[in-house]
Write a structure and sequence with these properties.
Length: 274
């Protein structure tokens, strides 16, 4: 294929998505393929890694290498792949439950470790694939069939957690604006280190009121801050459904333990074979 002729459709696998009609995750798929086209990536130089859940189906729909792994384990798999194959563009993807709940510890340490890869968190504030249970980002008073009066538990703030834990690029986007999301994905991939994009992705089946997000989004209300403290203050003070890039750090990416550490690991492995 002529590299100059790559289009978004070149990055679609041909597998038909089985998300509910109107699901926000379609917007992420559209934006991701647009971003790959704008970057002129070769499909064989891309890997998309996910865990379990509605959002985690995305590797099947992308024409690239993909891994549909275990629940909550997208980030360690993606980090290992990037360290072993640094020439690859590695994308990890998952929902708010997959990444912030069962994968929460991996999320914290991925931010801290700062491997050069991009995480897309599709946040719909509900567990969609398992029929509408509250997730870590569900509002405390939101009624579900398990908690008719709400959980009364403070929702997790993924953006602030990413900033505190050390992510090198932090942004929020909305699936209803796929072109803006595509531009943010391009910037995230180009930025060295661990990039986190929290994407507001409506679940029209279990949270149909999220269809109104398209009228409520404060577009580009977040802009790059001069320090982590300023970024945290911006996230805290901005409207709840704000989008934009809030942080571009300059920490050098983690590239592995070094040749000597790698040699020691190999020596241990060789000792088992011998």
């Amino acid at each position: 294929m002529n590299e100059a002729m790559r289009k978004p459709n070149d990055f679609k696998s041909g597998v038909k998505p089985i998300w509910c009609p109107g699901c926000g995750d379609y917007g992420v798929l559209s934006a991701l393929t647009k971003a790959f086209a704008r970057l002129n990536c070769a499909p064989e130089k891309i890997a998309v890694v996910s865990g379990i859940g509605c959002a985690a189906r995305i590797p099947a729909y992308v024409n690239a290498y993909g891994l549909h792994g275990l629940h909550g384990r997208a980030l360690p798999a993606a980090a290992g792949l990037k360290l072993a194959r640094p020439e690859l563009t590695v994308i990890a993807a998952g929902g708010d439950g997959d990444i912030y709940s069962i994968g929460g510890n991996h999320f914290i340490h991925a931010c801290r470790r700062n491997v050069d890869m991009t995480l897309i968190v599709m946040d719909n504030r509900i567990y969609g694939m398992t029929k509408g249970q509250p997730s870590p980002t569900t509002e405390p008073d939101y009624p579900t069939h398990l908690y008719p009066a709400g959980t009364h538990v403070q929702p997790l703030d993924g953006m602030s957690l990413a900033l505190v834990a050390g992510a090198n690029f932090v942004a929020r986007a909305f699936t209803g604006d796929p072109n803006d999301l595509a531009e943010i994905i391009v910037e995230a991939i180009r930025h060295p280190g661990f990039s986190v994009i929290e994407v507001l992705s409506p679940c029209v089946t279990f949270r149909p009121e999220e269809r109104e997000w398209k009228h409520q989004i404060a577009r580009h209300a977040l802009t790059p801050a001069g320090s982590v403290a300023e970024a945290l203050a911006a996230v805290a003070s901005a409207p709840e459904l704000s989008t934009g890039i809030v942080w571009k750090g300059n920490r050098p990416p983690y590239t592995g333990p070094g040749d000597q550490a790698g040699k020691r690991v190999q020596d241990v492995l060789d000792s088992f074979v011998a």
